[in-house]
Amino acid sequence: MGFILVHTSIGCTAKKDSAGIPKKEGKVVAKVNGMALTEEDLTFRPPAAHGGRMASGDQPKALEDLINEELIYQQGLKIGLDKDPGYQARIARIESQLAHAKRAEMMRRVYNTQVAAKIEVSHQDAKKYYDEKINQITADLHLGVLPFSNKEGAEEVLKKIRGGASFESIARSAAGSQVSAGRAPWDLGFLSWDQIPADFLDAVYQLKPGDVSEVVSSKRTGYQIFKLFGIRKNPKADFTAVSGVIMNRLRDKKVLEAYEQYVAKLRKEAKIEKF
Question: What is the pTM of this model?
Fold first, then answer.
């Protein structure tokens, strides 16, 4: 055979899926020993089984192929190949992947409808933020960074820096052969306010030129130590220019907070057992 067969018509006899939701059944196009094959079975056959997207003229052949697959599947059941450990492991993996896909899709829909859709940020919210953070928004920072995969390693390096070791010497040693005649890999150059992750804004904007930050971290980016090399004004960062970015950032922040509150409420109301 020139393709791997993943049987799709086994669900034809089931009226509901594992969540108890009624299945939509398509038009029956054939029956094999009483087992109904539907238009959906034809639609969801693996592309490799019919050479990619099926043209209308290929449907008769596709139906014959599907009938053959059903016959072979039924024969496999008849001779007991469904008891084979390898087959059972493969099916268990497919079912696990399906369960994960269903969970992820439902999570996406709940997140969009119950959390994100309920968050609003106004022009006034953005203006208030701009006025409060104007010293950050109108200043570009020349930053260096040392990234770490764990907190312990970052704190050990910070201790060395506080003890007199230079940020640059440690960065140069960590970079090794990556250092070239161009800009050093730890040198981020000048970054505007909107290029710096929101989680790090307060930590880096409180630095003075030459200062090295404490260990800063976020779930998304791991652990970092920053050094501020210099500051320059950004005259183009007026409210009109950055209002859209501010509104997006405020919305992201509010959505994250709302999501965490939503999950906390669900966890509080649920019975959760860990084993």
Answer: 0.68
